[in-house]
């Protein structure tokens, strides 16, 4: 069946004060071909040139219909609902004004929906970090290409995908169940909409094709709602959206409701905790709000969460205010998680959070070695080497017998990691193990060029420990001793390279490095 014979799609694009980007979004929808019968652009009372851009596009593209709202709705739900009400295609697809649909997205989704008679079809999405054009897959491994899920309750983990934009919806299904977004100023409206969709128990088909490119512009003057986390109001809105979604899912299926609670503990809570920052006022407000919310969770849902998430919840519950070592908690919430020393024991000899907060770290003894939240310190050891110190973790790593350590550099633009030569670990008189790893940053730049990396190179830096029992552990580095100092390096190709190791994200959870030739 060619595209002209496929049932048609209505693409709903919402826009507010996005004159510089909305044209690209609409054009990507029109470029999908005849399978898209109409693009409905809803301008949510923009005060910039968005209306003019859309009207000019509509004057030359008959498939583009523009709706100008006279009052701003305050959120994304109302304009999407406006688009659904006006849609005439068999299927509905959503697109935000600062994102794009990749070529062939609508075709792939419709073919999969028709093949499996699925009211909901989902495809792959990526978060594209701009301006670097670094793509990060959204929820990798959650959706299996070719899979057909008869009931969402059969795959409760689907609640982790809260996006509405990487999915195609049968319009008749939306109308039959009265599925709409929350109206007005409701942040994270897609949490509630996707919960309502899953609660309606549709058959869900999966295509492996890339169907959505989510642009992430962290340096933009006006951040997207999901990135604008400068005050506790954003977290409060996310908590309320999750509360509503969890209630909807629990009413439809106990399995989905429980999975939604676990997802909050393992994903939402950890994401915001690792970005907690150092403002005491924000910390206190965040702590009070979060503690009150997790106190409403059933113990069974907390027990079902990962060990790292359980420990975080129990520390939250143990104190009414952020503890003095709250920074350790932000590191435990990082990805990968790290539990920084000191390591205290309780009265019974069991591992606990600290002497001041003797919260038991239950389940630590049963964690696979690869999942241990190890801490590895790193500092310069001369010009072309780094000194590594691997901390033990209540004897768990010692049981596995750490033998060697090596650095792993992964290009932030993708491609295969580069591994340094493994070096044998030796016991550190202070505890743990140490090693000196030789490597040359200039050699890494040469390897990057061979992989097609030009001009500025950016690498994530990790460390791998190989144990005598065959267990590998990969984690991030905790830089110290001037490791993050900028360096000028001789280069036979460029004359000089500038190397800048740095911490990624608001919380220093990962270490990375940029390399650039000459003045760059």
Structure description:
It is an enzyme of class 2 (transferase). InterPro entries: Glyco_trans_2-like (IPR001173), Nucleotide-diphossugar_trans (IPR029044). This is Glycosyltransferase family 2 protein. GO terms for molecular function: glycosyltransferase activity. With 520 residues, this protein is of the alpha+beta class. It has three domains: 214 residues, Spore Coat Polysaccharide Biosynthesis Protein SpsA, Chain A; 136 residues, no CATH class; 148 residues, Immunoglobulin-like, CATH 2.60.40. Strand 14 and strand 15 form a beta hairpin. The relative contact order is 0.08. About 1% of the residues have low confidence.
């Amino acid at each position: 069946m060619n595209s002209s014979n496929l049932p048609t799609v209505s693409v709903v694009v919402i826009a507010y004060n996005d004159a510089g980007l909305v044209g690209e979004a609409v054009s990507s929808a029109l470029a999908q071909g005849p399978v898209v019968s109409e693009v409905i652009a809803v301008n949510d009372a923009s005060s910039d040139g968005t209306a003019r851009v859309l009207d000019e596009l509509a004057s030359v593209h008959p498939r583009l219909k523009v709706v100008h709202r006279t009052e701003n709705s305050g959120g994304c739900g109302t304009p999407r609902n406006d688009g659904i009400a006006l849609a005439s295609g068999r299927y509905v697809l959503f697109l935000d004004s600062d994102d794009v649909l990749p070529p062939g997205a609508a075709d792939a989704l419709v073919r999969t929906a028709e093949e499996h008679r699925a009211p909901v079809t989902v495809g792959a999405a990526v978060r594209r970090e701009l301006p670097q054009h670094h793509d990060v897959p959204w929820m990798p491994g959650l959706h299996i290409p070719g899979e057909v899920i008869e009931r969402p309750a059969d795959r409760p983990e689907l609640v982790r995908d809260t996006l509405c934009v990487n999915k195609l919806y049968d319009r008749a299904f939306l109308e039959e169940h009265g599925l709409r977004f929350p109206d007005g100023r409701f942040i994270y409206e897609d949490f509630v909409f996707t919960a309502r969709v899953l609660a309606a128990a549709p058959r869900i088909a999966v295509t492996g094709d890339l169907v959505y490119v989510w642009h992430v512009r962290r340096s933009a003057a006006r951040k997207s709602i999901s990135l604008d986390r400068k005050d506790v109001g954003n977290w409060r809105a996310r908590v309320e959206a999750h509360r509503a979604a969890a209630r909807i899912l629990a009413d439809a299926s106990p399995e989905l409701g429980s999975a939604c609670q676990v997802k909050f503990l393992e994903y939402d809570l950890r994401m915001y905790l690792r970005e907690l920052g150092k403002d005491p006022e924000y910390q206190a407000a965040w702590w009070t709000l979060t503690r009150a919310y997790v106190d409403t969770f059933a113990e069974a849902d907390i027990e079902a969460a990962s060990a790292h998430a359980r420990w975080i919840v129990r520390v939250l519950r143990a104190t009414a205010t952020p503890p003095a070592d709250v920074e350790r908690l932000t590191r435990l919430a990082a990805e990968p998680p790290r539990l920084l020393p000191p390591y205290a024991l309780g009265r019974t000899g069991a591992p606990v959070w600290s002497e001041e907060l003797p919260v038991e770290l239950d389940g630590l003894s049963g964690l696979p070695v690869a999942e241990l939240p190890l801490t590895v310190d790193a500092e310069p050891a001369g010009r072309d080497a780094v000194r590594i110190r691997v901390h033990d973790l209540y004897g768990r790593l010692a049981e596995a017998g750490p033998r060697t350590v090596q650095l792993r550099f992964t290009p932030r633009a993708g491609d295969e990691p580069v591994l340094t030569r493994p070096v044998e670990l030796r016991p550190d008189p202070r505890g743990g193990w140490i090693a000196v790893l030789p490597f040359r940053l200039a050699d890494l730049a040469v390897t990057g060029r061979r992989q097609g990396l030009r001009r500025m190179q950016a690498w994530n830096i990790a460390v791998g420990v190989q144990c005598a029992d065959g267990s590998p552990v990969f984690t991030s580095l905790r830089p110290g001793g001037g490791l993050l100092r900028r360096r000028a390096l001789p280069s036979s190709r460029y004359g000089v390279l500038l190397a800048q190791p740095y911490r990624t994200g608001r919380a220093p959870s990962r270490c990375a490095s940029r390399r650039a030739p000459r003045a760059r």
